[in-house]
Design a protein that fits this description.
Chain lengths: 232, 478
Amino acid sequence: MTKSARSRIFAKIRHSSRGATAATIREELDSFGKAPAADLPTPDTATAFLANVLKNQGTVDCAANRTDAVRAVGQYLYQHYRTHRLVAGNDSRLAAMPWRDAGVLPRFGTAEGNEPAALSYARLGVAETGAVVTFTGKANPAANNLLAEHHIVLVNCEDLVGDMEEAWLRIRHEVDRDGRPRGINFIAGPSSTADIEGQLVYGAHGPRGWHVILLGYMPASALEDARALAAG
Amino acid sequence: MEMHSQAFLENAREALGDPEKTRRRGLLAAFTPMVRNAAMESFGKFEPLRQHLRRVRQHTLDNLDHYLDRFEQEALSNGNHVHFAMDGEEMNRIVLEICQRHSARRIAKGKSMVTEETGLSRHLQGAGLNVTETDLGEYIIQQAGEPPSHIVGPALHKSAAEVRDLFLARHDLGERELEETSQLVQEARGVLRQRFLEADVGIIGANALVAENGYSMLVTNEGNGDLCANLPPVLIVCTTLERILPRAEDATAMMRLLVRSATGQPHTCYTSFYSGPRREQDTDGPIETHFVLLDDKRTDILASDYREMLQCIRCGACLNHCPIYAAAGGHAYGAVYMGPMGSVLTPLLTSLEESHLLPNACTSCGRCAEVCPSGIPLPDLLRDLRQAEQAAKLSPPRWRTGLKLHAWLARHPRLYHGLTALGIPLLHRLGRRRGSFSKLPLAGGWTSQRDFPAPQRKTFMQAYAGVLKAEKKRRRHD
Ligand code: SF4
């Protein structure tokens, strides 16, 4: 049955097709050039990224080094839960963090249904959209993005890109090296819904809090400038 | 899908009779264009990106055999099962078979207009499966037993008070406060979380299929689609052929316009690409994944003069900007797709006989075409459908006689101008004092919602002739 649907569909499509060769098709597609992207609110990528994360109703922190980063994680947990319970994927970068400095010891594995907080190490951050990018897998099970009440995400400054087109260049590079991951997730905010009377409510099905910690070298005023941009 | 498009006029009349719902539709019709326009203004590149995407999509449709073939190969090599379905019935059958093969009982379903089109949930429920719609809007209307009233916000016709009553009746959770919208969302979150964790099969739609790598793109704010795609052991992606785009960046470029057009956000919270079943090293994700690719007349539309309609990305902007949709509401259309895009699609997906009234639900104001991120000339397509309706003699004889009379008059300009020159000053004199009419003979329906402005003293042609004359005079003097 299905096979016949397939051949019927292909026959009908071929009938309306131009029948061009793969090379011609490629050439035409390339001739369209790059799609226009949204302008960044400021030329500095780190500041622009932070500003857009804030606009997406995320909260942000900056950390100059890994010790500062784990401290920022600990502070966030303590603020929200007065606990240091945390789940994180089996990411070698996360395992190597100086957790003892912050008194936090994550459970490395997959989030359960009622987890207070999960931590991910993003592959990329996209300044254009204020999104972080994670791949599903052992290092970041999909459940960790979705099931916890709060999702904390670390991003390295050198993993920031300007727009989505640049993001795909980087992703392609990683995929060529490591193969296609099952899922590529762009996350840009806590889960939300406006399905009842158009009123925006956070914490629809996924995390209700989304905290991004940018790690590495950035202008000293990045966070302050980002806050001003997001407010303006 | 169940069709009630023949009753459009009665449905619309009934909808207009409910002042509270009419008021809320009015609010949405003011609010949704406002957020869309603000988002486009701050983006600033609507037209160049619309042009770019039109070229890419046109190119994709022109070479659809090439891209569909590529997508299928990539999806197969990613470890998926790929199925094709000629019509909705076949899609429903394929999905049910997969569920039965896994002895599935509980299905968690994401939002998908395609499965609305095929009536998939009803089909699965008919076979004894327990299907939960997990998008909050879809969940609400599933509980209420109603069809969606909007392609993006399916339950926007319901007030928070109605949702509260519905939840109190449907959720056995005892005494509780449900005054705030946030409490309603919280309750649904709790109920649905359990359904995600228990589900045997997840079913989602796709906003795009990427030919170069076999991934499907899913866009949501709630994250419900992602829970459906990641937690259950079996995942079925139901979508149609025309969702295909050549490259991943084409899908995310489309997102720039899709989300701004739909909700006024620069992008959604979750934009996810899924390639297939879990990999060897993975600790979660479905073990088996399927694509079911539906035709349901898309290949017919591809070969027709209405091909441009296949560029629609289901953003809902044309609904939000349509005065008829605002007045009559989504349910009046009696079909899965409503508003301008629905009035074009429904006759093409069903038949003109069943839904010939819909292309007439248009004032030719042109706002839909102006805002459509796919640049679809909706008013032109609607006019073409009306012409087909006339040709097939489907419209009421009274309309056809009226149109014939008008056409005849239009071909006799002297008589036409003579008659309008008589009528317009008369209306002007009658409405002079108030500047408008709150009642007019033969137009009671129209004036029940708004006033008819009294015309200027002269007809357009008279005023135009005056301008020409003045211009000539000016030139002579120069
Ligand atoms: S026709 Fe255009 S405006 Fe309407 S839903 Fe489709 S893409 Fe959006």
